[in-house]
Amino acid sequence: MTLSARLAPLLRAKSIEELQAEANRPGGFRRVLGVWQLAGIGLGGLVGVGIFVLTGVVAATQAGPGVALSFLIAGVASGAAALSYAEFAGMIPVAGSAYTYSYAVLGELVAWIIGWDLLLEYALVVAVVAIGWSAYLQALIAQFGVSLPDWAAGAPATGAGRVVDLFAALGALGVAGLLTLRIETGARFNTAMVIVKIAAVLLVIAAGIPYVRVENWTPFMPFGFSGVAQGAAVVFFAVFGYDTLTTAAEEARAPQRDVPRAVLISLAVALALYVAMSLVLTGVVRYDTLDNPAPVATAFASLGLRWVAFVVSLAAVAGIASVMIAFLLACARIWFAMSRDGLLPAWFSQVHPRFRTPHRPTLIAGALTALVAALYPIKEVAELVNIGTLSAFVVICTAIIVLRRTRPDAARTFRTPFVPFTPLMGVGFSLWLLSRLPAIAWVRFAIWMAIGLAIYFLYSRRHSRLAGEMKE
Question: Which residues cross the membrane (predicted)?
Answer without folding.
Answer: 35-60, 67-86, 98-115, 122-146, 166-183, 195-214, 220-242, 263-287, 307-330, 362-378, 384-403, 415-434, 440-459
